[in-house]
Design a protein that fits this description.
With about 190 residues, the protein is α/β, with parallel strands linked by helices. It has two helices and six strands; from the N terminus they run E-E-H-E-E-E-E-H. The N terminus and C terminus are likely disordered.
């Protein structure tokens, strides 16, 4: 799962998708803790990227006024990463000149030809998913995904990409501790 956070750090950042339970009452949530065990640690051990994501989530939840409470949290946060091989097939318009012999003109004639050339691109796409779960009901109330191309990077760049992915997801989390649900639907 660690390769997930090699998300490309392009100018626009990763694509972010979110969804929420329309029946969830976010005004009653004030505390949080990490889900046990975390999906990203299902192999039984932690990594520096897991710890970096934990720190970024802590920072984002604290900034929204939530209190970390391991004993009886209102919310539990889980996260996981997935990397998939992807293929893009697209066409590129091309033009060429083909030559034909004209018996009437007794010379070769150039004729422009337009066609589409198929191009195939293989790449890896990584997805970081953050789930916010109502601890009392063990029910998902909000989820966010950061999706981007996986590229080879140094460990420091991967850690920075992890921070950026978590920040991009939480930028779409519209709630504060004890706050009410937003008036507009979350995208």
């Amino acid at each position: 799962m660690a390769p997930l956070l090699l998300l490309a750090a392009c100018a626009t950042g990763p694509r972010v998708r979110t969804d929420m339970d329309p029946e969830a009452d976010f005004s009653r949530y004030r505390s949080w803790a990490f889900y046990q065990p975390l999906a990203m640690e299902e192999s039984g051990y932690t990594s520096y990227l897991t710890e970096r994501i934990r720190a970024a989530v802590r920072r984002e939840m604290t900034a929204r006024g939530y209190v970390h409470d391991e004993r009886s949290p209102d919310l539990r946060i889980n996260f996981q990463g997935v990397v998939r091989e992807k293929t893009d097939v697209y066409t590129v318009p091309r033009t060429d000149i083909q030559y034909f012999y004209s018996y009437r003109a007794r010379t070769y004639v150039g004729v422009p030809v337009w066609y589409d050339e198929a191009q195939v691109s293989h790449y890896r796409e990584g997805t970081l998913t953050l789930d916010v779960v109502d601890a009392a009901r063990n029910r998902l109330v909000w989820t966010g995904d950061a999706i981007g191309r996986v590229v080879q990077r140094t460990p420091q760049e991967r850690a920075e990409a992890a921070d950026q992915a978590v920040a991009a997801i939480f930028a779409r989390y519209p709630f504060r501790a004890g706050g009410a649900a937003p008036a507009a639907p979350v995208r």
